[in-house]
Amino acid sequence: MKRNISLDILKFILAFFVIGLHGRLFYDINPYLSFTFVSGLFRVAVPLFILITGFFFAEISNNKGFIKWCKRILFLYIFWNIIYLPLWYHKGMSPKIFTFIITNGFLHLWYISHMLVASFFVWFTRKLSIKKGLILAISLYLIGCFLQYLANYSKNNFITQYVSHLYIYRNFLFFCFPFFYLGYALNKGGFKFKNYIFYISIFLFIIEITINTFLSYYYSKDLNFDLLVSLIILCPLIFIKTKEILLISSTKYIALLSSGIYFIHILTFYFIDILISPTSSLLRILLCSILSLILASILIIINKYLKFKIL
């Protein structure tokens, strides 16, 4: 079947953004340079992954299809958490950690469980008008952004103790649902934007990163940003601009490759740190990228012969 692989290529690039994010690119050179990438540029990756998934989710037309989709996502979540279970065991398997694994997954797998829950919200609100759904999604995301900024910059002890917990704002409600619904809405609504809006969104993104970098320096804190206000505008526009590029192919190889890289890269980092322990973040990320690419290619071959697909 012929398909437009422009989105596959975007996901492939984003998979390396995630490697750069988790490898904390340039942290050994300059913390503020690292901040612009790790809490800036690379943060487009996961929202776009979720948005793209939401776009294709919109093609599901009945409960049977929805249940099938959920089973598929749940299987991926369980399978890859089992793969990473030895790493959790290595950290020490307390009841608290075990509960965390069940509800959130291992590190980068968090978004799969939260996206699955978000899909239920989208499915059961699909009768809403797109306009009302978008208002709900954007409002929830802005609440999440507010909570995150509050957690990062507030000096109030209550806020520091409770609101600063990552999963208070980076969760199915304030993060996954908004982008999942945006993808869904883009499929149903067929929105189009003028080029200047895209350029304005990039400008706002750069401004937000610059302000956060300055404040990180001013507060002398190692701040972390998963939710950037500008992403709720920028990510849908990146998606639309990418989708407009027609690259027709009959293969899903690049899509599978990006999934493989995403799933395997943390394990790759783990073994690189044990065997080599590179002090350079750039070298560490480069090694992880190359090795993850090789391992993902092997996973694609294995995936062909499995009844239950792991990619």
Automatic annotation (TrEMBL):
Domain of life: Bacteria
Keyword Membrane: yes
Compartments it resides in: Cell membrane
Keyword presence, Transmembrane helix: yes
A Gene Ontology term for the protein's cellular component: plasma membrane
Domain Acyltransferase stretches: 4-299
Ranges annotated as spanning the membrane: 9-27, 33-57, 69-89, 101-124, 133-151, 166-184, 196-219, 225-242, 254-276, 282-302
Keywords, alphabetical: Cell membrane, Membrane, Transmembrane, Transmembrane helix
InterPro entries found in the cross-reference section: Acyl_transf_3_dom (IPR002656)
Membrane topology: Multi-pass membrane protein
Pfam families assigned to the protein according to its UniProt record, in alphabetical order: Acyl_transf_3 (PF01757)
Record-stated family: Belongs to the acyltransferase 3 family.
Protein name in the entry: Acyltransferase 3 domain-containing protein
Native source organism of the sequence: Elizabethkingia miricola
